[in-house]
Every structure is written in structure tokens, then in C-alpha cells.
Amino acid sequence: MAWLALADRSGRRLSLRGLGSDKREEPRLPDDPRHLLTRGSIMLETRMSPDGRPQVLFGYTTIHPWHRSLVFQAIPGGGIAMVQVQGKEITHAAIQHKNSGRTDVLRITYSWDSPSRWGRLTLEQPEAATLISVAVENPSPLSLQDVRALMLGQGSHDFASDVVFAALSNEIEPIGITPTLSGDVPIATPWGYRRADTLLRGDTVYTHSGEVVPVLHTVTRTVPARGSFAPIRLRAPYYGLKQDIVVAPDQRVVIDGPEVEYMFNQESVLTPARHLVNGFAALDAHCGPTIAYTQVILPGHETMMVANAPLESLFVGRIRRNMPQLEASVLNGIDRNTLPEHGRESHKVLKWYEAISLAKRRAA
Predict the structure, then answer these.
(1) Phi, then psi, of 153 in degrees rounded to 5
(2) CA distances in angstroms from 30 to 3, 37, 273, listed in the order given
(3) What is the 8-class DSSP label of residue 244?
(4) Secondary structure class of 148 (helix, strand, coil)
(5) Using CA atoms, how far apart are residues 115 and 140, in angstroms rounded to an integer?
(6) pLDDT digit string (tens) for 63-88?
């Protein structure tokens, strides 16, 4: 798979050879405006207004030589709608979601396979780990001319101020579970520290409690390095780190200490890295348009030692029982019989306001 285009507040770019780590010497698509992208994914992240007002978020419209458009919009009361027009053909889908009253970030992924007459519109709320998908019937392909209009903003187009980024892939992108460690982070094993992206099924790692457990699987995914995927640098010596590491905002770190016991009646808690960013112990990490993340799956969702700091391994819940969800995820292709079942997270996971309160207390 390859990310071909990215649009954000810093600019818009499209490369037929791929972006960032997906870049190749040869073009992945013919440079022909009439060439049809019959299979692909459009991903965008947007902040939702707390008043639930409708607005056009992202899209394009052209009328030459015939009417063509693709528009994503927020609908009244909370939710997302997608409408595609190709001449007389109209494709649409909508997802309702409960408005929490906050300016939550939502991730919208529209994937299509026109020859198979298959499409899927997905709404994810990264901070709440919620996911809703609906089928899109008989989606139309996009010509390269349409792709340029959509992603580069040519002609009549919309790119609302609430939209954080939009990206285009020429493959069906997975939804749901996603890895959260940069591949070069060192994970403690009985034979010393190993890069996360070199661990294989059957290797063993140390847990926070000093146990040795086997690696069941390692998963890797390349994503746009923007929005809820934008990398964060955790700096040594904070959190017990012996060196700086780069993680995704959703990577959860084990935090302990007297403040934790006092505030939450727990010896330790899990805090997403996004809530740790404070300009010194954790800060935004700059990189190119895409980034590859890796994670390991352990039998009991044990906490790993990463550069001497306790970090969460990949939590897969009971996804092995849900074949449609499994096949749509980054775990697609893994034998479900080799996947564990994780009943619940290894520690209490702090909500955003709890993490902020803890950070303020520690800084006091």
C-alpha cells in the first residue's frame, strides 16, 4: 500500500511515486488524467463543533465535461455524511454518533473497491477508541484528474478550518487497532535490547514485573504523520527512560508514584502519550509526511520495558471473535487461533481530564 497525497494546514502534496517512506523510483500510477483509481482510501481527521452544526468538511466539485463531486460533511446533531456524484450516478452514506459536547477529533476513512462494488465509510474517535462502519454500495472510481482536484484543491473545493489533515492511499486502509511505537525503539529481552521492528513470533521480552513472555506477533503500519498519528518524542530521563523514544499519541505509558496512589487509589495507571506533551518531558517530534509504527502482541497484554520505561503492548481485546472486525484491521492475515484474548487493560487508563490533573499535580 502507499500514501500518495496529503493535505494539511502547511500545504498540499501529491506524488504518484508515493510520499515519505512509501516513495519509490517508479510511479505507482500512470500519469494520465483519465486513469481511474478503482481501489483506495481517503482518510481525514476533523474537529467537531460542540454545537453539532452542519458544515462541509472536505471535497471537490467539477462540472466539465460532466458533473463529478465527492464531499464529506458534518450533519446536524452529530455525524458524518459522504456524497459522491459521477454524472447520473450518486453514492452516499452517513454515520450518526453521539455528540459529547467537546470539540472531539474524529477520523473518517472512506475505502472503495469499484470492481467489487464494495465500499466502507468508517468513523473513529481516537481518544475514545470507538469505531462505527457502514457499507457504501457501488462506489465509483476516481480519475487522476478528480484526485488532483480533491487533494490539491484545484477548481471548486472545500477544506474546512476544522479539518486537521486529509490523505489518500491507493489501497484499502485498515481500521481500528493500530501500532504505536517507532520501529527503532529498544525493547528489553533476555539477550539485551532489541529494536521493536526486529522482533518476531517466538522471541521473548521482559515485562515490567521482570517476567519473560513470548512475542505472539509483531505488526507494522505506515500512516500519515499528522493529527492523531503525529509522532511524540518522550525524553530521557523522564518516565525512567535511558534514551529518547518516538511513539504515537495513542501509545500508553505506565505512570506510578504517590500522586497516582493519592488521586486514583491505584499503584500505577496508563496515560496516553498525547496527554504527556508539556514541552520538556514529552514534545512533538518532527518528521516527513508519513511514519511507520510497530507494536508487539503479548499473551496477557503485559507491560514491556522500552528503553527502561514501562510501556503498554498492543491491546487486541477479543477481536479474534469478530471476523469482520479482524479482517478490517491491521491484524488481517494473522491466524485468529494464534491471537490472544485480552479481557481488559493491564492498568486503569486515565481519561483526558484525569491525565491533565495528574500532570498539573506533578508539576506543582
Answers:
(1) 75, 30
(2) 15, 10, 40
(3) -
(4) helix
(5) 9
(6) 888 899 999 999 887 789 999 999 88
